[in-house]
Design brief:
Blueprint lengths: L1 H18 L5 E4 L4 E4 L7 E4 L1 E3 L6 E6 L4 E3 L5 E4 L10 E10 L15 E11 L7 E3 L3 E6 L7 E9 L9 E6 L10 E8 L3 E8 L10 E9 L4 E11 L7 E3 L3 E5 L7 E4 L1 E3 L9 E5 L7 E3 L5 E4 L14 E12 L2 E2 L6 E11 L7 E2 L3 E7 L13 E4 L8 E7 L5 E4 L2 E3 L1 E8 L13 E10 L7 E11 L13 E6 L7 E4 L16 E4 L7 E3 L5 E4 L18 E9 L7 E11 L7 E2 L3 E7 L9 E2 L2 E2 L8 E6 L6 E3 L5 E4 L14 E9 L4 E11 L7 E2 L3 E7 L7 E4 L2 E2 L9 E7 L5 E3 L5 E4 L10 E10 L6 E11 L7 E2 L3 E7 L7 E4 L2 E2 L9 E12 L16 E3 L5 E4 L10 E10 L6 E12 L18 E7 L7 E4 L9 E6 L6 E3 L5 E4 L10 E10 L6 E11 L7 E2 L3 E7 ...
């Protein structure tokens, strides 16, 4: 940079010698400007400022960057391309300033313009704009189902974030829509977390069960406070032998009672609860009531063992329950623990043969019912049931009656097995008064419907009829009416109403009792025997508590007559009692006091003034009158409407009346009762005098530094009106500019805000006085105020933030800047003194704040009188690259010292003379790395971090040149990762070159050659040429007989591709296999018994040549069918047989 400055100085000197024209000068050049990387394209980020000594037009330019653009005339710098701190954290370029020289005076020669270039650095500030990234994702893990809760099942959750800012990384679990509640099974544990790195694992929270669920899937979300990234996580559950057999299908059977011995009832089926390598099942009967059945232990067939007898069973349902035991076969022997056995209950239903008729629970039944029993009523206390112990169609029967009267019906008409029976009254009139109808005898018949022959049985029912009160009282009319005065005295007869009853005795007319019911019945009294209705007792007839026409003019009450002395049947009819009105209420005004306002001289009230009284008596008429307060008969009242009007048609005349208020008393009368109310009338004065100020104008003088709130002048005005019309309010109508205010009551004008002589030194205030009349009247005066100047301005820096540059090797005493400050109250620079004060801060060459009491605070000093800034101590750019000085300026001529402050930003410019260096074993004489790397690593796998260092500048960026198909480098960190999967079989060795660039000027770079040897890994499974194999052998085959041959291949190279064979499973010891060629032969001829088993299944395990901890294997199933040969003689099922004839 020092060399560049020297060149510019030489060129400018040459221009001055030749042309006499001075070059333009930058005032603000944007060096060390901070810009956030997410600044939108199009944003104005800075304004370049420059000037020319000859005041000619200057033009701005930017050279060396494609991210910024400057307006050549205004100097506005605009962002034209996106920024990315992770790609480049510093922009370094030149800004140019060019003047317009034009033609030299007195000469025809054309002169070149002066062009000044300044190198600047713009620091890109990091923001959180990159999401976190999962490493080696997606994740999957195989977990045995018996893994204890609390175990860590996965410990390699890795997340990285390129940003330096943002919150500490967090990882959370979210359920997958296909496998809900997976996150309740597992928890995410955080082991190490920062803003750029996260490491954690997965811990089992709840037990696993292979039979319940074979895999779980959930989503991992990494969050940095703003962005998030997701990846999938799959947990596969490994099966182990820990589940007992599971019964399948139906365990129910149905047989006929007369089915022969050996009939198949059902086939019991069960399977091993563990699905990985299921075992065979053996069956056994644990319970066998009456020894009716036999169970085949291999096939599970359940058959009858002896003749069946349904009637011998304890349960009438014909259902027999059997306990069945299922055992897993382990190495040829049945298991006997809870993990290898299961018990289930089977049920067998024996169907019946019809041999029993329906049976009644009694032979005879007796009941009594009243003569007035309702049709459809069930005979009480009958308690009849019919039962047929047969089942199915054999137990179906019908019910019917043999009833000559036809008065009864039986329910239900059909039933099966057993039913309760009811008999209902359905027809005929039961009349106790007819001796022939006092007793009925009915025959009930139950007969089978679906059998041949149809078996049946009968029962008799005797029904006796009893007498009842079956006639209600009857009135001659359907509705009753009566009338009575609201003031009738207690005991006054209202009316008499009676009824008759066709029954005799207490059930007839002699036993009738009368009563009034309903709301209001208590206002009347009824003689219960005679039916005479009278007015009930009441202390104040005509009041709301008694009969009151105004409260309730009509009573609608139910009138009830009941025979059997009030306990029998009843009849209720409506009774309407109408009250006649009487004048018994006082008229009442709607308001105790009425109020009105009227102007003096008015001829009527606006709105009209009307009093109103109400009388609840419908027949009363109200009359109004003024009985007090109508002095000089100023008002009239309409006797019928109550409207009050001005008596004088020329208007209201208040002459001779001292008060503005008139109080009237008005009366309302209905001819019998009266009531009074007050009317208050306010008469308003007329506003006809304007306020008048004591002086037409006022003059005042005040100092510039007068405190806020100080009184300046007082104005006063008077109004000839009285009352509210004479109450004045003062206002400043204009001219105060919010610097003065006036007390609206006293008229005192005072300072409202700090005065500034330089901004305004004279004020002309227009002040008005407003009275309280309607409409309001005003008066006006003018107040002239003159402001006297005082030294009250604080000195300030122009601009507030000033910038300077100095090379790192500048000598002590070098002048690098002259501070520029102004004070509007002084005219000579001698009045200003300069100083450097705290805080003094700095930024290092990495753009980070320097913390602590570093020596950078003593790098510079300032001349107190001239403001010149000088180098005070040797500069150390490794300590601070940019120093921010707080500078102050003091006006020493003010009565009290006045201080101003600003900021001086000084950039210490580096001199670049060292190229970047990669870490060992790289050297400049041998710039290469030789590395080994496993094949088939996930995309993004780390090859290594090769961060270079530079003795005098930062590393600007890294690149692989030419680009590699398999590796990428992170531009900022120098970390090299894979960009695609690498296959050893295709590319056993890879080469690329990594280049590091520093940020110095001029920029230097270094390169490193990489030789990456790919290490072969065992990453391919063996593959059988068939998924299953089938073979057949005779059951008498000798040992070492060839059975079949299996074959598998492995695509891995070298020893990893070599395949060996072995047998696993239940019968792995009964056969042998050649480990190289896959030939299977017989080892144990004892298992070849077709009568014991028809097929043997073995599993062949194919394993590749990888190490024990990484070898891969697959399993194929071999089905060996055993062919029958004639090797067993016939055998009797019993040693002895016995028969009787």
């Amino acid at each position: 940079m020092g060399f560049l400055n020297f060149i510019i100085f030489a060129v400018l000197s040459e221009l001055i010698l030749v042309t006499g024209n001075q070059p333009p000068v930058f005032i603000d050049d944007m060096n060390n400007l901070l810009i956030q990387e997410n600044t939108p394209v199009g944003t104005i980020v800075y304004t370049l400022k420059g000037s020319d000594p000859e005041n000619s037009t200057v033009h701005y330019g930017i050279v060396g960057t494609d991210r910024l653009q400057v307006d050549s005339l205004t100097g506005l710098v605009k962002l034209i391309a996106p920024l990315d701190r992770e790609v480049n954290d510093t922009l370094r370029f030149n800004v140019t300033l060019e003047d317009e020289v034009g033609n030299f005076s007195g000469s025809n020669s054309v002169l070149n313009n002066n062009l000044v270039q300044v190198f600047v650095s713009v620091i890109i500030v990091d923001v959180n704009d990159n999401p976190p990234v999962f490493k080696n994702a997606p994740y999957e893990v195989l977990v045995p189902e018996d893994t204890p809760v609390g175990n860590t099942i996965f410990s390699h959750i890795l997340v990285e974030d390129e940003d330096l800012t943002g919150e500490t990384l967090e990882v959370k679990c979210v359920d997958n829509l296909q496998t809900l509640k997976s996150c309740s099974k597992f928890s995410i544990e955080t082991w190490n977390s920062s803003q750029q790195y996260y490491k954690g694992g997965v811990v089992l929270k709840e037990p696993l069960d292979y039979n319940d669920k074979q895999f779980y899937q959930f989503i991992l979300i990494a969050y940095d406070g703003l962005h998030n990234t997701t990846t999938s996580f799959e947990v596969k559950v490994g099966d182990i032998q820990n589940t007992p057999p599971i019964f399948q299908g139906s365990l129910t059977g149905i047989i006929q009672e007369d089915d022969p011995i050996g009939t198949l009832v059902m086939t019991v089926q069960a399977r091993d609860g563990d699905r990985g390598l299921p075992r065979k099942i053996q069956y056994e009967l644990l319970t066998n009531p009456l020894d009716y059945f036999l169970l085949d232990p291999v096939t599970g067939e359940l058959r009858t063992a002896r003749p069946l007898d349904r009637e011998a069973l304890k349960e009438a349902t014909g259902v027999i329950s059997l306990k069945i035991l299922a055992r897993e076969i382990i190495d040829g022997f049945p298991g006997n623990d809870s993990l290898t056995t299961s018990i289930a209950t089977a049920s067998v239903t024996i169907k019946d043969v019809n041999d029993v008729a329906p049976q009644f629970n009694e032979r005879e039944y007796k009941v009594s019912i009243p003569e007035n029993i309702a049709h459809g009523t069930t005979l009480p206390n009958l308690n009849m049931t019919v039962t047929d112990p047969d089942v199915g169609n054999n137990s179906a029967f019908s019910l019917r009656l043999n009833d000559v009267s036809g008065a009864f019906a039986v329910e239900p008409s059909h039933a099966t097995g057993s039913t309760s029976v009811s008999i209902r009254v359905v027809n005929g009139t039961l009349d106790y008064e007819n001796p022939n109808n006092r007793k009925y005898i009915v025959l009930v018949i139950a007969e089978e419907t679906d059998t041949n022959p149809k078996l049946s049985s009968t029962a008799t029912v005797t029904v006796e009829i009893t007498d009842a009160n079956d006639n209600p009282p009857q009135f001659e009319q359907e509705r009753l009416t009566a009338t009575v005065s609201e003031t009738a005295s207690p005991g006054s007869v209202v009316a008499t109403f009676t009824a008759t009853d066709r029954d005799s005795g207490k059930f007839g007319t002699d036993g009738i009792v009368y009563e009034l019911i309903g709301d209001g019945a208590e206002k009347f009294h009824v003689n219960p025997k005679t039916g005479v209705i009278t007015v009930a007792d009441c202390e104040n007839p005509g009041s709301p508590d008694c009969l009151d026409f105004e409260t309730r003019p009509v009573y609608y009450l139910p009138y009830k007559a009941t025979d059997d002395e009030g306990k029998g049947q009843s009849t209720t009819i409506p009774l309407k009692i109408t009250l006649t009105d009487s004048n018994d209420n006082i008229p009442l005004f709607t308001s105790d006091t009425y109020r009105a306002v009227i102007d003096e001289g008015a001829t009527k009230f606006e709105p009209p003034l009307q009093v109103l009284a109400r009388d609840v008596d419908k027949t009363s008429q109200i009359f109004y009158s003024i009985i007090e307060g109508n002095t000089h008969s100023l008002f009239n009242i309409d006797a019928h409407t109550g409207e009050i009007t001005v008596a004088n048609p020329d208007g209201l005349d208040m002459s001779g009346i001292s008060s503005d208020f008139v109080h009237l008393t008005v009366q309302a009368s209905d001819g019998k009762f009266t009531s009074n109310s007050s009317v208050n009338i306010t008469v308003l004065d007329v506003n006809n005098n304007s306020p008048i100020f004591e002086r037409e104008s006022y003059v005042a003088t005040i100092k510039e530094d007068t405190p806020v709130g100080t009184s300046v002048e007082s104005v006063s005005a008077t109004d000839a009106d009285t009352g509210i019309n004479a109450v004045l309010v003062y206002k400043i109508e204009k001219g105060a500019f919010e610097d003065f205010t006036i007390d609206n009551k006293s008229g005192v004008i005072s300072v409202a805000s700090k005065l500034d002589y330089d901004l305004r030194n004279t004020y002309t205030l227009k002040v008005i006085a407003v009275d309280g009349g309607t409409p309001a009247l005003t008066g006006t005066t003018v107040v002239e105020i003159t402001v006297v100047n005082s030294n009250d301005k604080i000195p300030f820096f122009s601009p507030p933030t000033q910038r300077a540059e100095v090379t790192e090797d500048a000598t002590i005493g070098t002048i690098i800047h002259r501070l520029v400050a102004k004070d509007l109250d002084v005219s000579t620079p001698d009045a200003l003194n300069y100083a450097i004060s705290e805080p003094i801060t700095a930024v290092d060459k990495n753009g980070k704040e320097v913390i602590g009491d570093a020596p950078f605070k003593d790098f510079f000093s300032v001349d107190r009188e001239t403001g010149e800034v000088l180098v005070a101590k040797p500069l150390l750019r490794d300590v601070a690259a940019v120093v921010r000085l707080t500078v102050s300026v003091t006006d020493i001529t003010a009565p009290t010292p006045q201080h101003g402050s600003g900021t001086l930003v000084i950039t210490i410019i580096d001199v670049n003379d060292f190229a970047p260096e990669f870490p060992p074993p790289w050297t400049r004489s041998k710039p290469k790395y030789m590395l080994d790397f496993l094949e088939e690593q996930p995309i993004g796998s780390l090859l290594g971090n090769f961060a270079a260092t530079d003795k005098d500048s930062n590393i600007a960026r890294y690149e692989i040149n030419p680009p590699s198909d398999y590796f990428t480098v992170e531009n900022i960190t120098g970390t090299v990762k894979t960009s695609s999967r690498i296959d050893y079989e295709k590319t056993p060795q890879l080469n690329f070159t990594l280049i590091a660039y520093d940020s110095g000027v001029p920029q230097f770079s270094s390169s490193a050659d990489f030789i990456v040897n790919i290490i072969n890994v065992n990453d391919k499974d063996p593959i059988f040429n068939q998924t299953e194999y089938f073979a057949t052998i005779p059951e008498n085959s000798p040992k070492n007989t060839f059975v079949t041959k299996v074959h598998a291949t492995d695509l891995d190279a070298g020893k990893f591709g070599e395949v060996t064979y072995s047998l696993i499973g239940e019968h792995s010891n009964d056969f042998v296999i050649d480990s190289k060629n896959g030939e299977i032969k017989i080892a144990n001829i004892g298992v070849l018994d077709r009568e014991a088993r028809q097929e043997i299944i073995i599993q062949v395990l194919a394993t590749d040549g990888g190490p024990a901890e990484t070898h891969r294997s697959v399993v194929a199933t071999v089905h060996i069918k055993i062919l029958d040969v004639n090797d067993n003689p016939p055998a009797f099922t019993q040693h002895h047989y016995t028969a009787k004839i």
